[in-house]
Design a protein that fits this description.
75% of the residues lie in helices and 0% in strands. The chain has 220 residues and is an all-alpha fold. The protein starts with 5 loop residues before the first helix and ends with a helix.
């Protein structure tokens, strides 16, 4: 097999671990064997070891992928040159992708078997929540957002979106993921934005924004 350049190897590592996200978010990773992981990645076991040294190395790459996204989204949310409505979309997107990247099952497996990665992930989440809290707080002070309990707003997103990305829930409700996310975000805007700013963004294409999120999910 040809020698893989470091940049290409890193890109392929990210591509392969993304194929594991659905399995790990629904079933965890502790019980997964290397053979099962290789099969999910569409690799032979021998080829897998061209990219990863061990199962822990795979989980480390997945954890870093999650943290990198959190950091990238945080930079956008913290960018005061962008409008509050645009940054609110990014908060929503981050909540959706976080629900997919980091389910409770995955986080609990991380705590049990990779405590150092768990601590790293929890520190990233702590920083993520701090940025979101500050964003909401500043929006309220600036008069763009209604005065609401920020901790409950954050908890609401975590709870509702975790439910919405659950396939069984969508099937029970006979609802597509696009419809569920669009309807929730429409309600979220009315809840958070003051009336005059909801009106100012009434022409905002929620479906287009949700389509963008779904494309990112499709790449997972």
């Amino acid at each position: 097999m040809r020698k893989i350049a470091p940049d290409e190897r890193q890109m392929m590592r990210k591509s392969y671990v993304k194929k594991l996200i659905h399995v790990i978010r629904t079933h965890g990773f502790i019980s997964l064997t290397i053979q099962e992981i290789a099969r999910t990645m569409n690799l032979s076991r021998a080829s897998l070891y061209n990219y990863f040294s061990s199962k822990e190395d795979i989980i480390m790459e997945l954890t870093n992928l999650c943290i990198d996204y959190i950091n990238e989204a945080g930079q956008t949310i913290f960018n005061e040159e962008l409008s509050y409505s645009l940054r609110l979309q990014k908060v929503f997107e981050q909540a959706v992708l976080s629900a997919v990247y980091a389910s409770d099952i995955y986080v609990q497996d991380l705590r049990k078997s990779c405590p150092h990665l768990y601590e790293k992930k929890m520190q990233a989440k702590k920083e993520q929540l701090s940025i979101i809290y500050t964003f909401y707080e500043n929006g309220m002070k600036a008069g763009f957002f209604n005065e609401l309990n920020i901790s409950i707003l954050i908890l609401q997103d975590e709870t509702v979106i975790e439910k919405l990305v659950n396939t069984s829930f969508l099937m029970e409700e006979e609802m597509s993921l696009k419809q569920a996310l669009s309807d929730y975000y429409a309600a979220k805007k009315i809840q958070i934005l003051k009336h005059e700013y909801v009106q100012n963004t009434e022409n905002e294409n929620i479906n287009e924004m949700v389509d963008c999120i779904l494309k990112k999910l499709a790449a997972v």
